[in-house]
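Final report, section 2: Outcomes. Of the targets proposed, P-type Ca(2+) transporter is the one most frequently requested by collaborating groups, and we therefore present its record in full.
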Amino acid sequence: MKWYQLDVEKVEQKLHVSAAKGLTEKQVQERRKKFGWNILEAQKQTPRWLIFLKQFQDFMVIVLLAATLIAGLLGEYIDAIAIMIIVFVNGFIGYFQEQKAEKSLEKLKELSAPLATVLRDGKWEKISSREVVVGDVIRVKSGDRVPADMRIIQSNSLEMEESALTGESLPVMKQTRAITRDGVQAQDQVNMGFMGTLVTRGTGVGIAVGTGMNTVMGQIASLMTTTKKVTTPLERKLAELGKILIVVAVLLTALVVVLGVIQGNPLYDMFLAGVSLAVAAIPEGLPAIVTVALSLGVQRMIKKKAIVRKLSAVETLGTASVICSDKTGTMTENQMTVKQLYLNGQHLYVTGDGYQIHGDFFIDGKKTDRRFPNLESMLLYGMLCNNANLMIKKGKYVIDGDPTDGAILVAARKLGLKAIDREKFCIVKELPFDSGRKRMSVVVEDENRMRFVITKGAPDVLIPRCNYYVDAHGRKVLQDGKRKELEQAVLSMTKKALRTIAICMRPLKKDEPLENAFLEKDLTFIGLYGMIDPPRKEVRAAIEECRRAGIKTVMITGDHVHTARAIAKQLHLLPEDGLVLEGHQLDRMTKDELEKSIDDTFVFARVTPEHKLKIVQAFQSKGHIVAMTGDGVNDAPAIKASDIGIGMGINGTDVTKEASSLVLMDDNFATIKAAIQEGRNIYENIRKFIRYILASNVGEILVMLFAMILALPLPLVPVQILWVNLVTDGLPAMALGLEKPEGDVMNRPPRDPKEGVFARGLGSKIISRGILIGLVTLFAFLAAYQNNPENLVYAQTMAFSTLVMAQLIHVFDCRSEKGIFSRNPFENIYLVMAVIISILLLLIVIYWKPLQPIFHTISLPIWDWLFILAISAIPSVLFGFKK
Ligand code: ADP
Ligand code: MG
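The predicted structure is given below as tokens.
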């Protein structure tokens, strides 16, 4: 079907839809049944059995399995089977962990799926893009991803960037007229929008003509490269470290084996022990557990309304030293209310709160109404030059659309002006608002076919474009004196933290061409709106907390400098000697000048999105790690350049969300703080289990090494080593990943992004605890062995139990870098459970008769446990007393 050749009515007919009403729910259901969901077919997934098999691809595990096979052939059935089982259980655990990480990432994808605005049963609603069906009437605005292939039926300066399809990166102007030519290529079908391309400018409406695989994008989807799994910096560091640790572990193991053989142990025994030790000591699972910990952290962040789009962001969050945040909507409620008007040289005050439509107009303390000259026309203009809708939801008035526009509608409603009479006023053309232009305009045609332009926007942008003004007596030429007066009025409002909007108009001559370049000039100034947008309650405390955590908060806004300053003061964001910079100052500053003053600057006002990039780079050149928020399509470059790009879940555009690594579900600044706190905590937790696992491994290797040096028999048999690796190293380590933040995570400066895995004393802790664990285990073995040299199984059981207990006590030491006594041991219920389960499993393999021959154990008398507990506490408690 060549949709571009059809008139709009033809398209409506063919698809059985009216552009004014949209599809009915019934039609949607039928079409979904017929054509399916609007998705590009999922890429092939790795089959489950392959994920399971992958758990065994590790070299040492393969060696171990081979060794077990040999053991089996040599008649050591029990050992062989026990080892096999342990290896398989280990594989299963790895498999489940991977599945879990995968699932939570899946869920993330769902949460950050793009939305589409469609007209159904006469009502505009936001749905997930996958629910769009052929015939849906779709509304798009700048920053959106086009959800389906569509024939465009309305275009207000609509431009799309279609490089994903055509390779052409210049945006294409979209129009609605049918194209009569034949054989037109996608890039020249200017009345079509294509799935997956970007709206870079303007607004528009289209009718979906193709969805899912039946789109131009769908046809080339199979050609698209699959996305590779990206690893985080920490995962990479660990993978590298892992290689070194493997070499060290293998060398030490080899040493153990050689020494053991020299001391007269049988070669075969030593070989199997060596391989088991290597399997246990090589922390091959570390990167995987880190991934699991990161993805668990991601889930906790979701609960706090922060969606992580890139796993690496979890780590980077902990290093952030500057947050550059939008003011409007992020630090403030984004619930605007017009409180003041400036008209005919007088200030009017408006009562009423929020979007509720009751309120009155006062002048000099006296109520006034429609009889006040120009008031009605000013409010009417405000309604005409407007993109929002006032609706009732659950008995309350709410705004659909831009809150600034919404406030203006509510103000008009307070004077009794209801919906625009579309018979009387017809919008012929619209120049949409964007943060760069800071204004919006419409061309209106009234019932007498007279046309006029209405422009509203930032007063400092519009006043210079005015040559006339109106007062109670009519239109006059705007002289310099009066201009000053207007600017004074703006100042007096902005100083009260009011967001100001000027409204202007110009009558058009008959048949005057509607050239964009001329429409917004030679205007007549009508009046000013002053609206409040109260700061969010929780933001002040969040800024304070960030300050204590060594993180600087910077406000960035397109709003007037005085408004910005006033709000910054209310939030305690701007210190007495803090600087406020304006966009025009930024333009004039060189890079060096900006870098010099950036550390003292806390507010950037009247900036455009282009300035944001400059700000990010200036901070970065001073060594800062920058988090930057953004919502509009033009914010994407700055977001990409920042270390942590933050998109807005409610008011953000698809483009910025896609560019960002974190999305705030509630657009709230306080959520950024919560995410940083969580990010810091996750990193600390990862450090905790790295410390736990590596110290355990050091202990395991050392006890074997010491024994061989002292010409003793093997203190631990292979199954015991593997059991320790599986049970003790596995469960408690996972539980450490679930630790709640320690009280002081937000009371210290951000982590240095360049710091290594073993920084801040982690390395020395691993070595010292590891050595002690090895020593006490050896001591337990030695004590039992010397009293009773014939009973080797008894001595081995003592060593085994001591090693396990020493680790299970040490895990509590790992919870804090300040020692075992600094935290309540029962705080982390998962850890307590993991330890109890591990102890129960230990008691089972020691006391349950059928398992004793398999694990080479023997029942221990009760007083032995007192001894075991006493010495196994030493490695952890010893350092706890040191202060
Ligand atoms: P921010 O989001 O940081 O407050 P914006 O770029 O949205 O900054 O707004 C900048 C200025 O543009 C505002 O101070 C206001 O004067 C003007 N403005 C904002 N929204 C609108 C709108 N919908 N129509 C016309 N002008 C607007
Ligand atoms: Mg804005």
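Residues 318 and 489 are 45 Å apart (CA to CA).
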